[in-house]
Amino acid sequence: MQLINAILDNMQVKDIMKNKILKVSKTDSPNDIIKRMKESEVDCVVITDNDERKNNTEFLIDFIDLINIIHENISLDKFLENNKFTELETIKTDDTVGKVISLFIKGYNKIIPVYDDNNIRGIICPKDMIIFYNNLLNKTQGLFVNILDNIHDAICVVNKDLNVLVWNKSAENLYKIEKENIFNRNIKEIFPSALLPRVLEEGNTYENIFNSPREGCYNIISAKPLLDNDEIIGGVSCDKDISELIRISELLNKTQLNLQVLEDQVSNLNESRFAFSKIIGNDKKFREIIEFSKNISKSTINVLITGESGTGKEVFARAIHMESGRKGYFVPINCSAIPGELMESELFGYKGGAFTGSSREGKAGKFELAHKGTIFLDEIGDMPLNMQPKILRVIEDGIITRIGSENSVKIDVRIIAATNKDLRKLMNEGLFRKDLYYRLNSVIIDLPPLRKRKLDVPLLANEFIKEFCISYGTNIIELPQDTMEILINHEWEGNIRELRNLIERIVILSKHNKFDISYLPNDLTAQNWDILSTLRQNSTGLNDKMNNKEKELILNALNNSNYNKKKAAEFLNIPRSTLYFKMKKHNIEA
Ligand SMILES: Nc1ncnc2c1ncn2[C@@H]1O[C@H](COP(=O)(O)OP(=O)(O)OP(=O)(O)O)[C@@H](O)[C@H]1O
């Protein structure tokens, strides 16, 4: 109704009035006027003669008035004298249509003349108004149906007898019932357990009730009674189709589950990759170091790992973290790789907008990231002097403050530092703080260089061969004994890293051919030339010895048989043709 009123109040009388007006004189005969009205197809006429009884100089009479005049056999003039016009309502061209409608609603049922500057400009007939109003109702009803059909939720309206009055397109789709098949039918007949009968019976509102009308179809229903002056005149329900949501949520659950499984697998993989069990080495001293490291893993004691480059310091640090069972991350930071001026922000982070170019949200530092985990300060010997007291403070108080922030954060981080430098020497040179050194070295794990556990070389080499052959998809290659000897005797300044890189090179070069000694880098073969030549010499000597022995045996057989080749061949237990061949090979005259 509000919508109709708004439409009516936005239309002016001049938009709907009839402006075809037939003007007649009061001296004209009523029969003649009726005839002209028919010809002109108008419902009423305007009598234009001046009359002092009215302000208006024009009067309006309609078809019925004229019939009465003829019936009563009086003149038009007499009819006008009877003052009937005082009963006519008047209206102006720019009045709202709403004003006209309210006149008719109040019971007025005659033509309304429309005036503008005291002149009749048009008329409004009750009959036309009924048609206009009816059209308007139909249009607004169409508009409502259109609106309802475009609502994503299924809407159902029933009257107080539970007969369906409204059933929108979404309801058709959701319940697979066409409007024509449900209109005016009792909702209970179609949905015996529908919510609306309960709503009308109890007068209660229900919200967000879960419902699954058929397999794979899920919805949430809200329903409330429709009231007119506290009297229930029907009910409306609104059903949200959440089948798609449920499907997506099931999918999400499944995906989450898969993700969890994958995450578990990855973390198992990672864990096992870095576990102590994956550290290769049978050297007695080295095994003792592994055992010792395992034992201190569970504590939170700070650890300093020393050893030449490539001896496995990071491998040990990761294994200690893994074995410790700490839930946080293992966060490695290479102190020699970070410029001094960035070190503080890398380690402690910064508050948003702390300095030019810093991100607005700020950034957590490595210490924060390692909360409940382990931070690995690799190459600690390269830690700038000005940073060392700050590291000491974190070790002592477990507190960090982001650059630019006034708030300190308490963290729980296990510290493992590593170095291939002599920290004592650095201390003596004033490049490393004593207090920091003594804080870091609660436990020292000193890893031996590879040249001090030479017997682990074949073990490591074969493990790396397996690893790279698998990752490059080649057949597992076997290193000849002489090559292995070279590897065992090599100095390995780069330690395990150098060995690992070399094996990778060999595997790549051997991909399409068999392994060849030339695949070893020149410096390695040059360094080990002595071993190589001894090995070669040994193998050449054997061949020569065997050849000499063969010649000696053949000459003996020939001498004993007086150079009778048949007898000599029989003696040597070889075919005569083979004897001839071998005599030729050893330059023995026949
Ligand atoms: N015992 C081991 N078993 C198997 N692989 C090892 C072992 N020790 C080291 N490695 C491998 O050797 C390489 C070097 O190890 P790592 O980075 O731990 O050495 P590092 O002492 O930390 O070196 P740097 O001092 O240069 O940082 C890595 O590829 C690592 O996987």
Automatic annotation (TrEMBL):
Domain called PAS: residue spans: 140-191
Record-linked CDD domains: AAA (cd00009), PAS (cd00130)
A Gene Ontology BP annotation from the UniProt entry: regulation of DNA-templated transcription
Key word Transcription regulation present: yes
Keywords for the protein's UniProt record, in alphabetical order: ATP-binding, Coiled coil, DNA-binding, Nucleotide-binding, Transcription, Transcription regulation
Single GO molecular function: sequence-specific DNA binding
Top-level taxon: Bacteria
Chain ranges of the Sigma-54 factor interaction domain: 279-508
Coiled-coil zones: 245-272
Pfam families assigned to the protein according to its UniProt record, in alphabetical order: AAA_lid_14, CBS, HTH_8, PAS, Sigma54_activat
Keyword Mitochondrion annotated: no
Name of the molecule in the record: Transcriptional regulator containing PAS, AAA-type ATPase, and DNA-binding Fis domains
Taxonomic source organism: Proteiniborus ethanoligenes
